[in-house]
Each structure stands twice: as structure tokens, then as C-alpha cells.
UniProtKB/TrEMBL annotation:
Residues 35-217 form the Isochorismatase-like domain. The keyword Transferase does not apply. It comes from Blastococcus haudaquaticus. GO terms for molecular function: hydrolase activity. This is Nicotinamidase-related amidase. PANTHER family: ISOCHORISMATASE HYDROLASE, PEROXYUREIDOACRYLATE/UREIDOACRYLATE AMIDOHYDROLASE-RELATED. The keyword Hydrolase applies.
Amino acid sequence: MEPQYERHCWDDVIGDDERLVMTRYRPRPPGRRPALLLIDCYRKVFGDRPQPLAEAIEKFPSSCGLAGWAALPHLEELLTRARAAGVPVLHTTGDARVGVPGGGVTQRAPVPGHDDAAGLEFVEPLRPREGEIVVRKSCASAFFGTPLATWLRDLDVDTLVVAGETTSGCVRATTVDACSAGYRVVVVEEATFDRSPLSHKMSLFDLSLKYASVVHTDRALQVLDAGPG
């Protein structure tokens, strides 16, 4: 008997060719020593309250609108469970320190009157605790130009549970680099988000084939509950 197909958010945007391609891939299962990596969970993408994207970007040009707020409970649950299990937790944010060069995370046009460095404080429910690593990055991937790989080796991590934003940008870039560096990667579907629903769905679909296991929150919690091994 064929195993039952697990439904995902991309089911309504892929066609027969993509479903055929799916049969040619087998994602690797997670390892035994996970870490939780939360990507760019700062104020500038959430804003100060839930608002539709068209309203939120007036004050917060980098906002993901309601998508971020829908993901927030899942992000909180992952963080709570990782801490309870003694799993290493790492957070990324933008590097806005004076004198730090960087090519910019994206090609987004500057907005007059807005400071791109503003809003990089973490949203309160996801604020790092003392002892949790904060990775400051100036490009999309959390690995590019940062000590992340060194820190992960020191922590003896073999699996990254990745969540945050944006699915098509920093989450994707970090996941590809993590896979290239030999890590098992678990991307949490409900705990990632993007300002474009289509980009979110297709990025998760593509990552699920080539670079990661894309799982629902309940499965990611099981990986974290297994502890640091």
C-alpha cells in the first residue's frame, strides 16, 4: 500500500509535472543533535499590531502583514519547547552596526524617510534569553560572512530546525547553505512566512524536494523534544 500523502500549503499551486518530480526525491531524516534557528523575527517585519499587508507597509516597509502574526504562535511554541528540551537556540538579525560593510539582504528600493536599520529589535515573545546566540548578518544567508558554522560545530549540532522569515529570502538562503555545509535541515511550514503567499508556497515546495524536510509544527516539536542527544 502506498503511504498516505501528507498535505502541505503548496498543494493548490503545483501541477502534474511537479507531482511527478516529487517522486524522484527523498528528503533526509533529521539527525540526533538539533538546534533551533529563528530567522529575522524582528519588529520591522511584524509591525506593532496585526494589519493587512497593504496597510502595514505604510509604516513598516518590510512588513509581511498578517502572515507574520499567523506564524507567531508556532514560533513561540518552537522556542518554548527547544528551551525546555535543552536544545541550542540561535537567532538572526540584521547587522546595522556602523562601519560594517555588506551588500544588503535584498534589492528592495530605499524608502524616503525610513531608516533601514530601525526595527531590528526582536519581537517580545521571541526575544533571546541570556546565553542564546544572536547572529548578526548583512546578507540573506545566516552563514554568509558570519561565525555561524563555527558556533554550530562547537555546539556539536547535526540538524537545524529553521523558522522565521522570509521563506523565499533569508529562510531559503540559509537552508541551502546549511544543506551545502552538511547539516540536516527541518523547515517548519507554519512557522515560516513571507509577504507573498505564492513565493512562500513555492519556496517551501522547492526546499522540500532538494534541501530540507518541510514539516508541520507538531513534527518539528518531536524533533526538538528529542533533545540535544
